[in-house]
Amino acid sequence: MYCVRNVTEDLYWVGANDHRLTLFENIHPIPRGVSYNAYLLLDEKTVLFDTVDWSACRQLLENMDYLLQGRQLDYLVINHMEPDHGASIEEILLRFPKVTIISTPKAFMLMRQFGFDIDNYTQLEVKEGDTQSFGRHTVTFVNAPMVHWPEAMVTFDVTDGVLFSADAFGSFGALDGKLFNDEVDFERDWIDDARRYFTNIVGKYGAPVQALLKKASKLDIKMICPLHGPVWRSNIGYFIEKYDLWSRYEPEEKGVMIAYASMYGNTEAAAQALAAKLCDKGMTNVVVYDVSNTHVSQLISEAFRLSHIVLASVTYNLGIYPVMHSFLSDMKALNLQNRTFALIENGSWACKSGDLMQKFIEEEMKNMTVLNERLSMASTLHPDKVSELETLADGIIASIKGEE
């Protein structure tokens, strides 16, 4: 059964929702599912913008059959070749053998690399600034390399002001009928998934995102059609501002994330004591996470959101507790910058984790600050350490106020 929605008068969403997939890219949990967005333009020529994951191919084909009503597909525009968008290309070619594929040279290389039989079909390679008319609509192509693959481009419909943005401006979460951003409470129900999507999928590539935002600022964008998540037709500046902050690695909020790694609950108790102390002193924008049972994609998302990060780790085999070390490595890999860290260390006979975490932050990461105040524990938080806890809380609050 077809499931389509009008985007504009002659543009249709022909994608699909997926509630069966539990891990996006086989790593990131998606409890609310995900959408694979594709768009069909019915002009003098018919145009499909991107395809869908192989698991959703049948839905895409049913949607297209319903709308085309026997017409041929004239063009297939591929903005991004990642398999969750490009896997159905061959099926489209088999059903519409006269179609012309439009994409970048690197995208055509990737199609062949993935084993797609495209060389018996008409191909049109495009570069930055090229245009193509489909009748009433004329589009221009804008390169977007490393947002977040090297072949990526975005396509701008200059006629209606629609930006087909590939993986930019996307989000985790299935649409479930509600296609547009103004049909949902985005701040309440979607922003966390959108942030987690950006920070874990695109977060490493801040400079390329900034380059794309600079290009986009010169376009008269009235609507953004991403490959995942809602279509933006109102309050577009809100989401562009989020992308600008995230890609410059600037925090959204002044606040504290406390991430602890605890074997028997003693380091956890210190983390909770610090959270309570901060709240007592008026800093209530505090979140606490156990790195052992919180998925790292959530930890990364919160690290991008907040200005201050407290790492509380037990010493393990004279090193950093493994899951805490993994969190540090992921922050480095995703290029997180411009944060202030505070440290809590614990060790029953050789307390090494604090020095090792500080060394990692200062030597392996960019533009980070580590506060001088540190809480050091031997096995558990004893009463004689209350003054250190107080000093640590005061140091964090002073740092936050100093940045305001």
UniProtKB/TrEMBL annotation:
PROSITE patterns: FLAVODOXIN_LIKE
Family membership: In the N-terminal section; belongs to the zinc metallo-hydrolase group 3 family.
Cofactor annotation: Fe cation
Coiled-coil segments on the chain, per record: none
Protein name: MBL fold metallo-hydrolase
Superkingdom assignment: Bacteria
SUPFAM superfamilies per record: Flavoproteins, Metallo-hydrolase/oxidoreductase
Span of domain Flavodoxin-like: 256-397
Organism in which the protein naturally occurs: Eisenbergiella tayi
Keywords: Electron transport, Hydrolase, Oxidoreductase, Transport
Alphabetized Pfam families for the sequence: Flavodoxin_1 (PF00258), ODP (PF19583)
UniProt GO MF annotations: electron transfer activity; FMN binding; hydrolase activity; metal ion binding; oxidoreductase activity, acting on NAD(P)H
Known EC number: 1.-.-.-
Enzyme class: oxidoreductase
